[in-house]
């Protein structure tokens, strides 16, 4: 028992050391960048990069910093990894855990994503209006739509937009259908929703839509927002293939998801039992998350034309509690060849 106690203390100390190393680095970088940002704000008299009580600055990672955080994650001890039977259990209960998530949080967890028309030009009112006037209604499919925080605001702003929302969770789809914005658009024939496991086969809305001439190629655009990261890595390629099949030739695929060395990964990667595989982790609620790099995305989307692909790296500070977060996302825009 004495030996076991020593081992446990060693593991806990290692976790604390690696986590402390990362956060010390984060705070150091924030102090440097926030000082510069504060001076800019004093001179301009405004805070462009602030929301409520949060302020953020662009984060420029050096090769030394990347090597440092990579070393922290690679130094994980076997005891920090989940057991094989736990990994299998999380895979088998993926849909159930998302149902539990939405049963618990209802429609209150995520905020509406009003920024999409700024970061994805394909979704601007002008672009959608031009497309609709020349080619008929623009059909936008969102995979992993949740309760509609992305597509429902778009429906309100674009009368020519038709939206198909798809999600693994039955509960999420039911909540989306209950939303007044969805119900109104549905009565107009502009909104549909269905449960879809993107790793298991073709889109059910396309297969059952009698107005579509071909099973493949029905959507003008598809959105993947923080969805692919929840899929087990071994099934990601099939999932992407199934989404690409929904697009018409020339259709766009718009992507945003978690990036390598995001703060959430550093927390999970230094916690016992959270690591399911390389860069793949389980959260406290049983849902899972993979953290991508650009090569991951290029490999999976290789049959599409790359329009834009980059990291979004920012340091966020909460001015209320002085907490600091170093965030990383991947942003991409792709087009299906004609």
TrEMBL record:
<dbReference type="GO" id="GO:0008757">
    <property type="term" value="F:S-adenosylmethionine-dependent methyltransferase activity"/>
</dbReference>
<keyword id="KW-0808">Transferase</keyword>
<dbReference type="InterPro" id="IPR013217">
    <property type="entry name" value="Methyltransf_12"/>
</dbReference>
<dbReference type="GO" id="GO:0032259">
    <property type="term" value="P:methylation"/>
</dbReference>
<dbReference type="InterPro" id="IPR026113">
    <property type="entry name" value="METTL2/6/8-like"/>
</dbReference>
<comment type="similarity">
    <text>Belongs to the methyltransferase superfamily. METL family.</text>
</comment>
<feature type="signal peptide">
    <location>
        <begin position="1"/>
        <end position="18"/>
    </location>
</feature>
<protein>
    <recommendedName>
        <fullName>Methyltransferase type 12 domain-containing protein</fullName>
    </recommendedName>
</protein>
<keyword id="KW-0732">Signal</keyword>
<dbReference type="Pfam" id="PF08242">
    <property type="entry name" value="Methyltransf_12"/>
</dbReference>
<keyword id="KW-0489">Methyltransferase</keyword>
<dbReference type="GO" id="GO:0008173">
    <property type="term" value="F:RNA methyltransferase activity"/>
</dbReference>
<feature type="domain" description="Methyltransferase type 12">
    <location>
        <begin position="141"/>
        <end position="253"/>
    </location>
</feature>
<dbReference type="InterPro" id="IPR029063">
    <property type="entry name" value="SAM-dependent_MTases_sf"/>
</dbReference>
């Amino acid at each position: 028992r004495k030996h076991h106690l020593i081992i446990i203390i060693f593991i806990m100390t290692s976790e604390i050391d690696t986590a402390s190393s990362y956060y010390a680095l984060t705070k150091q970088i924030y102090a440097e960048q926030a000082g510069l940002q504060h001076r800019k704000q004093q001179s301009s008299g405004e805070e462009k990069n602030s929301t409520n009580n949060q302020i953020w600055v662009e984060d420029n990672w050096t090769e030394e910093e990347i090597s440092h955080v990579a070393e922290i994650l690679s130094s994980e001890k076997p005891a920090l990894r989940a057991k094989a039977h736990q990994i299998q259990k999380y895979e088998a209960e993926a849909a159930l855990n998302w149902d539990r998530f939405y049963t618990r949080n209802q429609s209150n967890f995520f905020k509406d994503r009003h920024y999409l028309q700024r970061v994805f030009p394909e979704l601007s009112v002008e672009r959608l209006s031009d497309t609709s006037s020349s080619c008929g209604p623009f059909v936008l499919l969102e995979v992993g739509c949740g309760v509609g925080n992305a597509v429902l605001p778009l429906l309100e702003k674009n009368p020519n937009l038709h939206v198909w929302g798809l999600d693994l969770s039955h509960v999420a789809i039911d909540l989306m259908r209950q939303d007044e914005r969805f119900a109104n658009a549905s009565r107009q024939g502009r909104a549909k929703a269905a449960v879809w496991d993107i790793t298991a086969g073709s889109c059910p809305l396309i297969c059952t839509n009698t107005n579509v001439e071909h099973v493949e190629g029905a959507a003008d655009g598809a959105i993947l927002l923080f969805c692919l990261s929840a899929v087990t890595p071994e099934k990601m390629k099939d999932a992407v293939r199934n989404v690409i099949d929904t697009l018409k030739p020339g259709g766009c695929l718009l992507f945003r998801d978690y990036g390598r060395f995001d703060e959430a990964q550093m927390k999970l990667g230094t916690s016992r039992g959270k690591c399911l595989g390389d860069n793949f982790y389980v959260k406290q609620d049983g849902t899972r998350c993979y953290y991508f790099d650009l090569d991951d995305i290029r490999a999976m989307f290789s049959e599409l034309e790359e329009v834009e692909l980059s990291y979004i790296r920012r340091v966020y500070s909460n001015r209320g509690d002085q907490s600091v977060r170093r965030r990383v996302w991947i942003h991409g825009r792709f087009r299906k060849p004609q």
